[in-house]
Every structure is written in structure tokens, then in C-alpha cells.
Amino acid sequence: MIDEIRAQVRVWLAALGPGERWSGLRARVRKQFRLSLLTTALLGICLVLVLTPRRVRIEGPASSQLEVGTAMVMGSVQNRQEQAIVAAEVAAVPAAGGEPIAEGLTQTDGRYILVLPKGLPEKLTVEIRRDHYGKVAVELTSADIGSLRDGRPVVLPPTVLLRSRGPAFWITTLIFLAVLGLMATGKQHNTLAALVGVASLFAVSYLGSPVREDLFIFDFRSALLYVDWNVIFLIMGMMIVIAVVEETGVFQWLAFKSYQISGGRRWLLLAILMTVTGITSALLDNVTTMLLMAPITVQIALALGMNPLALLMPEVLASNVFGISTLIGTPTNILIGSYARISFGGFLWNLTPGVMLALGGLIVYGEWQYRRELASGNGASADLLQKLSERGRIVQPEELRKAGWVGAAMLALFLLGDRVHLLPSVTALVGATALLAWIKPDMEKMMEAVDWTTLVFFIAIFIVVGAVQEVGVISYVAEGMGWLVGGNLVLAMLAVIWTGAILSTVIANIPFTAAMLPVVGHLSARVPGAETKVLFYCLAVGSAMGGNGSLIGASANMVTAGIAERAGFPITYAYFLKKGAPAVLVTVGLATLWLLLRFYVLG
Description:
This protein is 65% helix and 6% strand. The protein is mainly alpha-helical. The strands form two sheets. Strands 1, 4, 7 and 8 form a four-stranded mixed sheet that branches. It has a four-stranded antiparallel sheet with strand order 3-2-5-6, with no helix packed on it. A hairpin with a 6-residue loop joins strand 5 and strand 6. The two termini are 56 Å apart. Mean pLDDT is 80; it is low at 15-23, 31-39 and 45-66.
């Protein structure tokens, strides 16, 4: 890479004119070096992710380090939902008191091994404790002590720790509700609201715990464990790919073709635009789709002499609905797929039929809701066709061809990668880097196209939701829903779908989904028949389609409202609720029928 830069410098030197400044040359060299270094770094990351072999981590002491006849106490620790508790402190303490003779931590599966020294006391107690749980002491029997002295290991039955609700529990709950309140009211930017929550959690943990020990929530290292980096890098990689494809003009071309095919007939134009927007949202995220489709839709509507909202509202509703059919279509699917280990194909095969059914119902609803605006209107205007054809051209056909090949390869990896344990984030990073290396665009412009504000928001909301999970709020919610549905799979499916649909109209669906993931995980482990991950598919449908119920329900809604307002047609909260709430009933109802058919009737 350095040799290439030197060769480029020699070319520039040969081309220098007498009036060219050396400062300009130095600036070009520095820029080229930075861009080359960035590309090299991205390639290096991708090679490490792809070529590093999967390693199996063996917890506990290695067998080669233990002598034959070593005294060991083994067991496991879990909560009331029979889930493993990680990093619980386990100690073997003489019953008479004193210092522990052996200590350890529970591993990712909740198991522990205590290696005891020789010369055991007559009585021994295993004490287990963890922050936000009650302490448990298990006294070993005389037979256990005898087995240990004979060199035979003792395996204790699973120990259940019960949650404790101290000041940290209530403070964390209040902080979480305050963050959701700031997001719901729009008084603060979502990212700022999440960062305020993170800062408050750390302030309580680090400044409050020295005063009162029960104010401790978690430390910085533990907080980072709740961040799903697979989601972060998947979103970042897809943003880079989208930025490259957007430059080609293909989306404006699609909008122009939609108008051309409709011949100016409004009812047909609406159906085509909703279908194009929906399919695009399945391949891109719905926010990007509306950023690309909304401006040209406004232009088409104004040229036809109609209210742009008659096209924009059904478009954004279709964007939120059809994006559910793929892993990368909505931010909520990215969260769910990473948490539940659902592949690209899993979403595609299990949800697409229901999503298509819901989109059909949504098109019928849109045609009926805006029937007056669609009933009359102009035909295809020659002036409009000329204007759209000028803006609807593919300006970079060669780059589009290259992006098409890379996109096809990425789609294949998304579909087949699960078989070789290839994470979607790796596919996104490899595809983005390959596209950048092949096309060689302006790297600074591409990096600016990455929405770093959104990435910071995801990191922050992961930590806020992790705090709620850490102190046990999620466990209590899961117990309540578990008590409500019992062991009935149909009740569990309906509860998850419609809880998600209703609450996503009040709370933005991204933080809601992040908070619900562990709850659905609890239910999936205890409801018979839910091991097929059906409840996670129900959460995907409820949270994404429920986002159509209000202006703040989904990010794409607010983006579309901003574009419409700049065009002089504001979308108020009441207007969106009036048009969107019935759409939620239609789409969620149809999708529910499919989910029941797919997972309950057909099994």
C-alpha cells in the first residue's frame, strides 16, 4: 500500500505546473494516505472476522492441572425462570466461620467448580451471592464431607437465587421510564435521552455505591456486555452499502418507472408506490427507503394536483410492514435476529407470506382511506414525465452493476451464512469493504453517510435496557406474562403480538423491542411449543407493525413527517394516529392469522 502511494506521488510530481503550490500537493498526499489507511483497516477487520477459527472455550480448571483424587464441589446457579446466572460469587466457608477455603465464579452456563484443599473441616458451607439477588448458603452433609475426603467430587443440586428489590432496583426503573418518557414526548432527541439514561446509571453506581452499597447497579465492564456488537456492525456495514447504491440514482429511477407504468392513474400509482416502497424496505432499512422515496413522491403528488399525504402515508405504512420479511429490513428485526439467533432465511421463509397478506390488506385500506383523493385527477403530464425522467436516471450504471454483484453475494451469504456460523455483521462488513475497494468512491463522503448518531443510540439503549435486566425488572415482567399465558402457546403468541402492537404506538419500537427481548426469551423457555422461536417472530410482527399506530412509533414515521412538513404538508400526531391506528388493526390481524396457521395449525 505504501508503494502505491509513493508511485502516485511521483505521478503528481511529474504533472506539477509552475504555478501549483506544494501545500496543495501535501494536502492531496495526506488525504490519499488517510483513505488508503482506512480501507486497509476495514479489509483487515474483515479478514480477521472471516479467517479466525471458531474456538471452544473450556470453563473451569483444566483436567491436566488437577491431581487424581482432588476434592471438588460442583453445581449450578439459576433464577426462578431456570436461566443460568453468570458471575455469581461462590465460596466454600467453614461452618465455624473464618476465611473461605475456596472461591470461584459461575460461568456462562451457570456452573461452578470449587477445588478444595486437603485437610477439610468437619463442617463446610457453600455460600452463593450476586448483586441484586439474595444470598444462599448450602451446608454440606457429613456424607458429602466424607466423599470429599475420599477424593470423590460432590455435585450439588441446582441452586435458585431469588431477586432482591433494593434502592438500585427502583432507581433503575425510574431512569428507564424517564428515558422512555423523553423519547415518547419528543422533548429530547432519542440519542440524547438514551445517553442521559446511561450517564445517570453510571453516576448512581459509581457515586452512590460508596455511600450505600445497595445503590450499585453495574460497572462499566458489565454494562458493555449488554451491548450487542453484532447489531452495531451490521447496521454500520449496511449504511455504507446503502450510501454507495444511493449515489447511482436507482431509487429515483424506480419512482419514475412507477409513475410511468401507472399512466397517471392515482389508484394504480398508490398500489405501485406502496409495493415498490415495501420491497425496497425489505432490502434496505425503512428509514433510508423513506428518505429516498418521499421527496420524489411529493413531487409527483404536487404535479398531479393532489395532497402528497395521500401517497406518503400509505408509503410509510407499507415500509414498516414489508420490512419485517427480512433480517435487515427493520432495526427491530436486526435486534431480534441477533438475540434469538434467527437467520436471514428464518425471517424470509417464516414471515414473508404473512407480510404479503398484510401488505395486500394495507393496499386495500389505503385505497379506501384516500378514495376521494384518488378518485379524480390528471393523466400523465408530459411536463411531469420529462422532469421525472431527468431526475429518474441511473447516473452511475457501472457502479450500480458492481453494487448489484456485491449485493447478490451478500444476499447469498445472508441466506447461507447460518450454515457456516457466519454472523450477519461479518457479511455486512465484508460486503461494504469489497464494494468500497471495487468502486473506490470518496471515502470521506462514504464515512459521513454512516449515521453515527444512530449507532450511539443503539449502544446507549442496549446499556439502559441491560441495567433493567441486571436489577431484575425484566424477570418480574416475564413472570407476570408467564402467569397470564400459563403454558398455552396460542395465548402466548397473542399476548406478545398485541402487547407489542399496542405499546409500540406509545413507545418507539426500537427501545421497546430491546426491552422485550429477554421477556420473550423467558417465555420461549417455559411455554411448550415455543422452542421454534415463534414468539420472537410474534415480537417482530407486533413491534414493527405496531409502529404504524403513531407518529413516534417508528423512526421512518418521523423522517417522513419531516419531509412532508418541509413541503408544506405537516403530519400531526393526531392525523397519523387517525390514519395509522386502523392500519395496525388490519395488518396485525392478518399477520396474526398467518402466524397461527404457520406455527400452531401446521406446526
